[in-house]
Structure formats: C-alpha cells, structure tokens
Amino acid sequence: MTSTRPLRADAARNRRLLLAAAAEEFAERGLDASVADIARRAGVGKGTVFRHFATKDHLLAAIVLDRIDALNAVGERLLKAADPGAALLEFLTVAAHQRQQRDLSFLQDAGELPAEVTRARAQMFHTVHALVDRAREHGVVRVDVTGADVILLMCAPNYVTSYVPDASPDLWQRYLAIIFDGLRPEGAHPLPHPPPAAP
Amino acid sequence: MTSTRPLRADAARNRRLLLAAAAEEFAERGLDASVADIARRAGVGKGTVFRHFATKDHLLAAIVLDRIDALNAVGERLLKAADPGAALLEFLTVAAHQRQQRDLSFLQDAGELPAEVTRARAQMFHTVHALVDRAREHGVVRVDVTGADVILLMCAPNYVTSYVPDASPDLWQRYLAIIFDGLRPEGAHPLPHPPPAAP
DNA sequence: TAGCAAGTTGACCGCCCGGTCCGTTTATCG
DNA sequence: CGATAAACGGACCGGGCGGTCAACTTGCTA
Q1: B76-125 tens-digit pLDDT
Q2: Which fold has domain B9-54?
Q3: What pLDDT sits at residue B102?
Q4: What's the pLDDT at A103?
Q5: pTM of the model
Q6: What is the count of residue pairs from A and B with beta carbons less than 8 Å apart?
Q7: Would you give the distance in Å from CA B68 to the centre of its chain?
Q8: DSSP-derived 3-state class of residue A180
Q9: Which nucleotide minimizes the distance between its C1' and the CA of B6?
Q10: Which of A101, A111, A126, B42 could pair with B17 in a Cys bridge, judged by C-beta atoms 3.0 to 4.6 Å apart?
Q11: What pLDDT, on the 0 to 100 scale, is given for residue B50?
C-alpha cells in the first residue's frame, strides 16, 4: 500500500491544472505535444510536471485512465439497460463523444503502460464484450461480429473525421451510424476473414 | 518546363533503392521514420537522400504520388465495369490492400504538399465520387451517403487493424466488409448528421 | 510565528532529428 | 584513356525534445 499523505494545497491545484492543460494540449496537437508547452499552458514550470508525473507517458496514462474509468462506469450502467441494442449504441456514442478531439487511443501502442491502465482497459474490453453479446443474443447485432470487432471499430468515427479540416464537432455521429448499420443483421453479407483473437 | 537530362546510372539506381527503403521504413515505423534509417536501409549516405529529395516531406510525397496514381488507374478502369457495386468494393479493396501497412494517409495533414500530389489526390476524389454516384444510382449504396463519406471511410479498415498486435495481414478485409455493409441500402437507418462538404 | 519538509523553478544535459557542405569517388563521353 | 561534371557520403550544425537538479519559495503544523 502506498501510504499517501495528502497533497499540499498548491500541489493539488497544480496537479489539476496540469491534467487539464495536458488534456487540451494533447487534444490539439496529438501525442507529441511537448511537455514544455503543457507546463506553460498550466502556468507552471517544466520541473513541476515531472514532480507530479515521472515521465510524459505517465502524464498521458493519468489522463487516459480517467477516461477509461468514466467509460467503464457508463458501460456498467448500460449492461442493465432495457434495450441492448440502444445500450451498445449509447456506449459507442459516449466513447466517441469523450474522445471528440485527437486520438490518444487507449488501445494503443502497448508502450508498457502502468498496470492500472492495463487493468482498466481490460475491464473496458470485458464490458464491451458483454454489451455486444447481449445485443447479439437479442438479434440487433449480426451473429458474426464479436466484441473484439466492436472494440476495434469504436475508434474509427473519430479517426475518419479527423481528416476533415473544419469539420463540425459532431460529424463523427454520421460515421458511427454508418458503421453501426454495418453491425446490424439486416442485409449483412458474410465476412471474409475470421475475427482477431487479441482484444 | 524542367529540362531533365537523364539521370546517371548509379543515381537512378539509388533513387529506386531509396524509394523502396523509404516505403518499407514508413510502413514499419510510421511517418516519423528517420531519414538516417532510410538511408542506411537503402545502403546510401544520408546526403544522397537530400540530393534526390529536397526534404523528407518531398520523399514522402514521391511515394504517396506513386500510390495515388496507381489507384487512379484502377479507378478509371472500374468506372467502366459492368457491376457498379462490385466496382466500388473492388476499388476500396485495392486501396486498402495497397496501404496494407501503416498509414501514410494521402488525405492528410495538408502540410503544403507539392502541387502534383494535390492534383492527383483531387483526381482520385473525383473518381471516388463518380464510383459512388454510379453505385447509388444502381441502388447498391444507400441514398444518403456521398463520395466524401466513402473517401473518409476508406482508410478506416487499415486504421482499425493497426491496433491488433499480431494481426493477419488480411484482417482489414473483415472491417471493409462490415463498413461496406453499412453503406448498403438494406436495413439502413437515417443518418444523424449531414455529410461534410470538404473532400 | 518559527521551522521545516514539501513543492517549485528554469537553467542545464544528452540525445536525436532534419538538413547542409565540401572533399572524394565515379559514370560518362570525346 | 583522361577529363569533367555528376553523384556520393559522412562530419557537422542548429534546434527541440524529455528529463535532471540544486537553489529557492511556501504551505503546514506545533
């Protein structure tokens, strides 16, 4: 157990400022936003960043962890929703909405993330699998798609809209709808390749 | 007009080696593959890279231009194919297959690309619009999707599979199929957002 | 309010990158 | 061949990055 003595007031404030600034900076400039810029945006010195987060990756991980946890809470709730199809769609909508900006994708890179992130991510994968299974059993998702498929596709709407220079911030909804229609059983054509085992 | 005296034999060979090495390196490491690594892989000095290509971006542009031109040739042919639905699917298949590896996406970044690339890209966009229009008129693509939608979605299969660590090199086919089913009129639900004007 | 640990800071370090430059090598052609 | 311009290569440069550190400031507590 880490015996966490509470943070000093200014330190706690700076930590919050840093997380907010980093989220904005990553959103605008992608993962190679510089630590110096993040510090400037937060109004603190660069050294302060590294007092709170061992490395730039740890800072990123803290942000990502927050988001995954939030998503997990939503998923947990939706598992008990009445309409399994609507529940899955809502989950994907919340996920896309939350990651409205640049990618950050929490699936990614496996650059040896802290164990907490790995665990939260695994939990999210589990939730998605459950949501998909339930939707499939109710016949609102085609029989040949798996949770892994949905996990992979769930980042696509944000990705494709990132190429539109002055896109409406809601454009991703259009592509989520198209992809979701592709997941439905009506008019489904057989898939040419088995699903991945991984996620 | 650039009065192009023919390249010396060794220079021409090195140019080819460089393009090949750069394509592989970009494929493996993404757009931030280093010029030094590319040179090493091609078996030439770093200075030679810049003799052939003014900047790293010009090198990238040369590769991208090749691919877009190849794609345009395919598109041109498919515009005269008998089955418009199969033609569109084949075009997207060729596009995805060619970009099997990492992204490079030719839509992207607008980092002031050379005029040739911009023009070739515009021509490709035009071709896609035509393919989509023809497919829509034949009722194999839903009425509410546009060429711009397909252009955006066409990179998604490669993107999503890039997150699977040891994916089969053909996994993208699965997601192209799902997305393509989403483009079909059968079982289509109305789209929540107008299409983008841009591409 | 005094003392101290906790927190802050920005100069600094080493690294790697894209790009330059010039001494050297080499394909080409009269 | 031998002369010459084209091509080559790698040391070198400036800049920006992630990360460190020691001197300084400040919130907490007794």
Answers
A1: 999 999 999 999 999 999 999 887 656 656 556 555 677 888 899 999 99
A2: Arc Repressor Mutant, subunit A (1.10.10)
A3: 61
A4: 60
A5: 0.92
A6: 132
A7: 6
A8: helix
A9: D6
A10: B42
A11: 98
Q: How far is CA B164 from CA A21, A71, A169, B171, in A?
A: 30, 21, 28, 9
- In chain B, whose CA is at the least distance from the CA of A93? B192
Report residue A1's pLDDT band, with 50, 70 and 90 as the boundaries.
Answer: very low
CA distance A52 to A58: 9
Contact A144, B178 (CB under 8 A): no
Q: Is the CB of A34 under 7 A from strand D?
A: yes
- Supply the angle between the helices B84-98 and B172-183 in degrees, to the nearest 10: 150
Share of chain A above pLDDT 90, in %: 71
The pLDDT score that the predictor gives to residue B147 is 97
- Interface touch A174/B193, C-beta < 8 Å: yes
Cα–Cα distance for residue pair A123/A120, rounded to 1 Å: 5
Write out pLDDT tens, residues A86-139. Answer: 999 999 999 998 876 566 565 565 556 778 888 999 999 999 999 999 999 999
- The dihedral region occupied by B112, where left means phi > 0, alpha psi between -120 and 50, and beta the remainder, is left
Nucleotides of C under 7 A from a protein CB: 6-12, 16-22, 26-28
Q: Specify the fold of B56-183.
A: Tetracycline Repressor; domain 2 (1.10.357)
CB B115 within 8 A of CB B165: no
Mean pLDDT, chain A, integer:
91
Distance CA A52, CA B20 (A): 44
The CA distance from A152 to B90, in Å, is: 23
- Find chain A residues with C-beta within 8 A of B155's C-beta: 159-160, 163
Q: Which nucleotide is nearest to A8 (CA to C1')?
A: D27
Q: Which nucleotide is nearest to A45 (CA to C1')?
A: C9
Compute the distance between CA of residue A4 and CA of residue A18 in angstroms, rounded to an integer.
Answer: 20
Q: Where are the domains of chain B?
A: 9-54, 56-183
Cβ neighbours of B154 (radius 10 Å): 20
* Cβ distance of B193 and A184 shorter than 8 Å: no
